[in-house]
Each structure stands twice: as C-alpha cells, then as structure tokens.
Design goal:
Number of helices: 4
Shape: elongated
Structural class: mainly beta
Number of strands: 48
CATH topology of the largest domain: Jelly Rolls
Radius of gyration: 28 Å
Largest sheet: 7 strands, mixed
Mean pLDDT: 77
Domain DOMON: 39-156, 591-693
Number of domains: 4
CATH architecture of the largest domain: Sandwich
Subcellular location: Membrane
Main location: membrane
Family: Belongs to the copper type II ascorbate-dependent monooxygenase family.
Helix content: under 10%
GO molecular function: copper ion binding; dopamine beta-monooxygenase activity
Low-confidence stretches: 1-28, 513-581
Length: 693
C-alpha cells in the first residue's frame, strides 16, 4: 500500500505549478514556464499595462521553425491565433502572423500584428523575442485577457524551404497559463535564515493503468510545540512523471489521524466517508500543471503548530496516463517552507460558493448554465472586524463542466467592481490568482460567486458531488488578517424543494413524479443589486468558527441522482426563507448522521431534519446533560413493509428499549428514502409541558 511520506515540515496553503525555469533573460522577463513536460519549449513573458502590450521570448530545442499560438479556450488548433517563426542559415529572423481555420497549415493574416524584437540560434536552440498588443483590433487575432489562456505550441527540426511552404510539425502540444495575475519574481520576499522544510508526498504509489485516475492519501501533520509561519510551498514531481502527475490538491481534514496511512483510489466505494468529504473541505495546498510554486506576500504567513491549526490532511492526486501504462510508481507531493519568525499577519482562507449537494443541478445539453452561491451581509457583519480583510489571491474550483467563474462584491446596496473573474476556466489548470490590487471586504459586505457550466455533450443531469463528473462551485479567497469567518455557502435543501414541487404539481405546472425523482422547474436568476441578492438566499450556511473550519459538521450528504429522469433540472431559488434550517451539524464522526434544525421564535417550536445512511430504524434523543441514555427524551422512527412511516415519542429509564410515552409530543412532517439514505423531518415545542420531555 502506498503511504504518505512526511518529512519534518508542513503548510496550509495553496499553489499550482508546472516547471518554473530560470532563463538567461531573467532580468528582462517577469514570468517563466515550460510549455512541454520535457523542458524543450521554454517561454518567458512580461506585459506593460500602460502600453497594453505583451512581450514573449520562446527558447526551443530546435534549429527549425517554431509555432506559438493562442487557442480560443479549447486548447485545439481550429480558431487559434498563431505565429510561425524561424531563423535561417544567414541569421535572418522570420515571423508570420497566421490564423487557423482547421487542423491544417494556418492562413497568413492580412494584418501582421506580431513584431520581432530579436532572434538567434545557438547550440541547437532557437531563441526568438517578439511582442503584440493586448487587443490588436484584428478580428483574426484573439484578445490577451485575464484568467486562463490556452496556449498551443509546435516545432519542426527544419526551416521552411520557402515562406509559403511550411512542413507539418514534429512536436506539438497545448498548455493553459495565467499570463497576467501572477507575482513577479522581484516581488517575492527572500527566505529567512532559519527556514525549515517539510515534505508531504505519496510514497511508492502505483499509478492506475487507465487514462485518468484520482488517488487519495491521508496525511498526519507534524506535532509542533509552538506557532510557526508557512511562507512558501513548492511542488515535488517525481523525475520522469512530469507528464503523469496532472494536479494535486491538499485539504484540511477533521477526521481521525488514525487514517494517516490511507492511500487508495479516490473513486473506490470503500473510501471512508470521513475522508471522502474532506475533498470539499478547507484548502491547504494545490498544484496543477502549468502553474508555479507559491510564495506568500511580505508580512504574511500561514499559521502552523498553533492550538487551532490543522493536524491532518487528505491529498488528492490526479494522474494522467493516456497510454494506460502499468507499473508507473510515483512519489510526488509538496515541499513546505516554514519559519519561527512570525510575520505581522496570519493568512486566512474564506471558502465561498454553493454547498455541495445533489440539489445543485445542471440540465443536460446546456451550452451555458449559471449557478450562484451567496454570502450575505449578516455573515460578514458578524464575523469580520473593522476595517475588514485584505484579499490578495483567489483559487477558483469547479469540476469538468465548469467553463467560467466570477466573484461579485456588494456594499450598502451597490455593486462594487468584481473581485475576480475567469472567463475561460480550465479544470486541468488550477492555481492561485494574485490580484493586481488587494480588495478589502468590510463587515456588512455581501459576496456572490457565479459558476458557469457547459453540458452540451452530456446526456444526463449533472449534480453536485465529489466525483469529477459531478460538480462544485467554490472560490477560495486568500486574505489577511485571519478572521473567524472560514466559509460562507448557500444551498437549496430538500425540505424546501419537496413542498414547492408538490405545490407545482397540484397547480398542474409540472407533471407528477416519475419513479422516486420528479422533473424540476428551473428558477435560477442572478441578482443585480444587493436588495435582490438577499431575497433568494434560501437556506444559508455561514460558518463562524474559532479559527478552525469544521467542514465535516456542515457537509450535506450527497445523494446520487444518476437515474434522474428529466429534460431540465437545476437549483431552485426561493424568495422565502422562513422554513429554512438555520443550523447544521454531523452528530457522528463518519458523517453518516447529519442534523439540520431551526427555531421558530413566534410559536416557540423547533424543527429537526435528520439524514442518516440507513434504511432501518432511526433514533434521536435529548440527554439530561450527561450524554448518556438513561433519562433521555427519545424518538424512534421506522417504515414498515407497506411503506407506512412511524414516529414514536419515548423516554429512557435505563440502557434498555425506551418506554413509549403516553403523551406523543413530536409531530412527523415528512419522511422519505433515497439511495440508502433516510431523511426525516419532525417538530416539537421547546416546552411541551410533559414531564417526560
């Protein structure tokens, strides 16, 4: 069994990388990356926001022609904006601005909008420097924009025999990069003299012999006796596996450290539930092909070793094995840099978005479908301190259907500039995006994250869940100083959907159920002002915690809906939240027994909703402050063979079957089972007047 190897250090953060390469032009270019896994196609670039120009330098292991292009957010050749360039035997540099209409020789553009700066060949490597405007005004040229850019590349060992006769490439590929929102090398603070490192990596994990696989590893973190600050994280990629390790994400996990040696396929049905839900928890670290290691801004660091700092994590490894080759062993992971020299500010991560539930649903055959998660003003007003928090970076996250994300910002009824936008999101390229200027979120501000999905090729509905074929809508906001607000989600609960659909069916607006699941009516509108933003908040989760996000206690169970029979299905936003559950917790460690509850002050009643991984009887009780069974007020519920539901109010006199109460003071409101999970909703008065309660 592969195990996670922990050397003497750790970190709480996020990053993303491919291979960062230092070039001979380091002083002239701010950013560097390799576009291929073999480090044969190197790219440097810089940009001038005043002149709105970008300058590129390519260094390729060839003495023939070089191709460089910008793909229309597909990573494919058709529709791409391309330049083909070379240096002839006399040292003359050629550069042709072309555009691709298909997978054939790109057409020469009538408007030549790329400009040569210099070029030469040396020791079998061709180096060419050129520039262009962000927006050339040529409809055949693609815009250079913030967010993810798909770059395509190619080269040949020979120069073209003529300027109009260019042979097919020897090598080609594609790489996603963030060209704008990055930290320049000269802005990265130097390492302190006492810096220590710690490695978190898988040990001898055998990559599955299939095209793509997700491997999960449990990691018990080192037990430090005093507070430290993590100041940098970089990836460790096993030599020879640069093309196999696609991305890695590390999550904080509140599960027992006894799982520290767990290492297996993430998609196995035997994966412990306690670890499975950690994959939607607090972000610790992230890496993706095309990104780079992260260095935290000056005066900031992630707290490590403190009382409330994480002790355990789960790493998700995404392996890419297109040849389905067997026997590839991997030891990749993270190297974390930390110091005893505590910086001025602790970094925090605020997780924003939509709670991961099956009610977060996207219809099939959609070219564009929006889902929005809200964080209202009362959450930030309660959890943030004046003057607020400074957001310096974001990490967007959806699964394979996600194509765009936007985080909006509201204050005093007005919309402020968006915090971050990625119009061309690529699941295969996830990294922290540094904001050009820090954004201050003050107490009383509201936030909204909108995720856009494309499901044109999918025959069935896509729902929220852990698998990459399911979906998520999250944004991890990196900020300082750290505040008690760790996550802010909204979602639509089953207890809200059920009566709504019942009403629509009675009105004849929608057909009756087909099997267990019925067709959904779609109501999903993004508000444009704070007033309308607050109207459809639905059941909303606002986690206030003492520095530690207990995600496991707030995670709804994900019900599989792969058999959903519908033509349209999506999250339903309701204007009324009077019946919404206000509080959420998992009663057990394994997240098999989930509880929602709300309090109605007007009639002094409390409603409970329990969701349990069972189809048998369910017990729920209130203990007399001992946590023991004797003298407890207990309800037991079950469904008989005819489908009739029973709820019995009982009281416990010892460690035996509780006695049936003569006064039945709990009212059953709803009861149903789906895929092995029982959902039960009931109500009682806060004071029933019954001495047995």
């Amino acid at each position: 069994m592969a195990r996670l190897l922990l050397a003497p250090t750790y970190a709480v953060v996020l990053l993303a990388l491919i291979i960062t390469v230092k070039s001979e032009t380091t002083g002239q270019h701010e950013f560097h990356a390799s576009l291929d896994e073999d480090l044969k196609y190197l790219l440097d670039w810089t940009f001038d926001n005043n002149k709105k120009t970008m300058t590129f330098t390519v260094r390729v292991k060839t003495t023939g022609w070089i191709g460089f292009g910008i793909s229309p957010y597909t990573g494919k050749m058709p529709g791409s904006d391309i330049v083909i360039m070379w240096v002839d035997n006399n040292g003359k540099v050629y550069l042709q601005d072309r555009f691709a209409e298909s997978r054939s020789l790109p057409v020469l553009d009538s408007s030549q909008d790329y400009y040569i700066v210099s070029g030469y060949e040396r020791n079998g490597t061709t180096t060419i420097k050129f520039w262009r405007k962000f927006n050339t005004g040529d409809p055949k040229d693609l815009l250079l924009d913030t967010g993810t850019t798909r770059l395509i590349w190619a080269y040949n060992a020979q120069d073209p025999p003529a300027t109009t006769n260019i042979q097919i490439h020897d090598k080609m590929g594609a790489r996603s990069l963030n060209l704008f929102e990055r930290m320049p090398e000269n802005d990265k603070p130097s390492m302190p003299s006492d810096v220590q490192t710690h490695e978190c990596r898988v040990l001898n994990a055998t990559i599955p012999a299939r095209k793509t696989a997700y491997w999960c590893v449990g990691s018990k973190l080192p037990d430090l006796t005093s507070k430290h600050h993590i100041i940098k994280i970089e990836p460790i990629i096993t030599k020879g596996n640069q093309g196999r390790v696609h991305h890695m994400i590390m999550y904080e996990c509140p599960a027992s450290p006894d799982w520290h040696d767990y290492s297996a396929d993430c998609d196995t049905e035997n994966m412990p539930i306690a670890l499975r839900y950690c994959r939607s928890g607090a972000l610790v670290a992230g890496w993706a092909v095309g990104g780079e290691g992260i260095t935290f801004p000056k005066d900031t660091g992630f707290s490590l070793g403190g009382k409330d700092d994480p002790k355990f994590t789960v790493i998700e490894m995404h392996y890419d094995n297109p040849e389905e080759k067997a026997g590839i062993v991997d030891n990749s992971g993270f190297r974390i840099y930390y110091t005893k020299q505590i910086r001025k500010y602790d970094i925090g991560v605020l997780t924003l978005g939509h709670l991961i539930t099956a009610t977060m649903a996207i219809p099939e055959k959609q070219s564009s479908w929006n889902i929005t998660g809200y964080c209202p003003q009362f959450c930030t007003d309660r959890a943030l301190y004046n003057p607020g928090i400074n957001i310096f970076g974001v990490f967007f996250h959806t699964h394979l259907a996600g194509i765009a994300l936007s985080t909006r910002h509201f204050r005093n009824g007005k919309e402020l500039p968006a915090i971050a936008v990625n119009k061309h999101y690529d699941f295969n390229y996830q990294e922290i995006v540094y904001l050009k200027n820090n954004v201050i979120v003050s107490p009383g501000d509201s936030l909204a994250l909108t995720c856009t999905y494309q499901t044109k090729s999918r025959p069935n509905v896509t729902v929220g869940g852990q698998a990459t074929t399911d979906e998520m809508c999250l944004n991890y906001l990196f900020y300082y100083p750290r505040a008690p607000l760790a996550a802010c989600f909204s979602y639509t609960g089953y207890d809200t959907l059920t009566p709504y659909f019942g009403k629509l069916m009675k009105q004849g607006v929608m057909p009756p159920p087909s099997g267990i699941i019925c067709q959904f009516q779609i109501l999903n509108q993004l508000p444009t002002t704070l007033t309308t933003l607050l109207a459809p908040l639905l059941p909303l989760l606002c986690f206030e915690i003492p520095l530690r996000p207990y995600f496991k206690t707030l995670q709804e169970s994900s019900i599989t809906m792969s058999k959903l029979e519908s033509s349209t299905c999506a999250v339903l936003l309701l204007v009324s939240v009077t019946t919404a559950a206000n509080f959420h917790v998992s009663i057990d460690e394994d997240l098999n027994y989930l509880l929602d509850w709300s309090y109605n002050e007007q009639d002094s009643t409390m409603e409970f909703t329990v969701r349990i991984k069972t189809t048998g009887w369910v017990g729920f009780g209130i203990s007399p402050y001992t946590g023991q069974m004797p003298e407890s007020d207990v309800v037991i519920r079950w469904v008989d063979s005819n489908g009739k539901a029973y709820l019995q109010d009982r009281f416990a006199t010892g460690w035996i079957l509780p006695t049936l109460d003569s006064s039945q003071d709990y009212t059953l409101l709803s009861d149903f089972k789906v895929n092995g999970t029982t959902t039960l909703k009931f109500r009682r008065k806060c004071n029933t007047g019954n001495p047995k309660i």
